[in-house]
Inverse folding.
């Protein structure tokens, strides 16, 4: 992926100078821990992905119907199609898009995910999320009905019992919580995970505000049980297709606690208008 950025992300020197950019392009590699994942970012300050060009190429190859209506993010996802490339010629260094299907396949095999952010003329950032396994994290243990779930504390911003006036419903966006003057979508964790709850009244529960990148969401749970250091264990092949959990851990009383995939829960709003869908 770094070779892709160097070969087809960074423009020629003449093009960069003409666009008012520094002569030399910059590729930045970052790695950090976020909510039960190791996050790896490859960012370049090149020409970025051109959505119109990608869409035209996809239509030419029959990957997309001519009358299809895709948003920009959906168009970017097309570069993960096997063998897809908008490069006019493939060099010995790389071809942006060529092999990206292999990248996604191997990341998903590790139960990870990959995201793209790109602005034409400014650059592209690929973000890879790889789940931690057999690693120790500090988690916030919450109760939903009789079940116990673990929220990585690095993803938690705050928690509180909401007042009646803090909860509202916004058309097309579902239930929202007024958190310090900012409307934040609420996800009823019991409904989402099909777990019976102690009370359907949000004011009788606890709201946990979690973050993933620039986005946040309020998770409604029945109770806070406490903090606990846990060893993350993989869920195995049987749960390969689920997206709600990043792993599991054995709790102090011998029960199994499922570790919530906060990134996936926060990003639900990108795919569903209803916060409780």
């Amino acid at each position: 992926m770094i070779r892709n950025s160097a070969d087809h992300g960074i423009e020629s020197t003449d093009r960069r100078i003409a666009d008012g950019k520094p002569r030399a392009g910059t590729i930045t590699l970052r790695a950090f821990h976020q909510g039960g994942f190791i996050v790896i970012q490859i960012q370049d300050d090149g020409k970025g992905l051109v959505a119109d060009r990608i869409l035209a190429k996809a239509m030419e190859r029959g990957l997309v119907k001519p009358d299809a209506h895709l948003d920009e993010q959906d168009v970017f996802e097309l570069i993960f199609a096997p063998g897809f490339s908008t490069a006019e010629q493939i060099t010995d260094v790389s071809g942006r898009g060529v092999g990206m299907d292999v990248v996604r396949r191997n990341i998903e095999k590790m139960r990870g995910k990959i995201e793209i952010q790109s602005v034409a003329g400014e650059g592209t950032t690929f973000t890879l999320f790889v789940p931690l396994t057999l690693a120790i994290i500090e988690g916030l243990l919450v109760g939903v009905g009789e079940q116990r779930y673990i929220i990585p504390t690095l993803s938690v911003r705050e928690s509180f019992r909401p007042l009646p006036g803090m909860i509202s419903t916004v058309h097309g966006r579902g239930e929202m919580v007024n958190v310090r003057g900012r409307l934040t979508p609420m996800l009823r964790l019991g409904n989402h995970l099909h777990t019976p709850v102690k009370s359907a009244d949000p004011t009788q529960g606890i709201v946990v505000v979690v973050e993933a990148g620039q986005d946040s969401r309020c998770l409604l749970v029945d109770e806070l049980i406490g903090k606990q250091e846990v060893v993350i264990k993989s869920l195995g092949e049987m749960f390969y297709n689920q997206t709600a959990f990043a792993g599991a851990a054995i709790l102090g009383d011998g029960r199994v606690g499922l570790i919530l995939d906060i990134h996936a829960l926060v990003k639900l709003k990108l795919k569903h208008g209803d916060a409780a869908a």
In short: Residues 136-270 form a domain with the SH3 type barrels. fold (CATH 2.30.30.40).
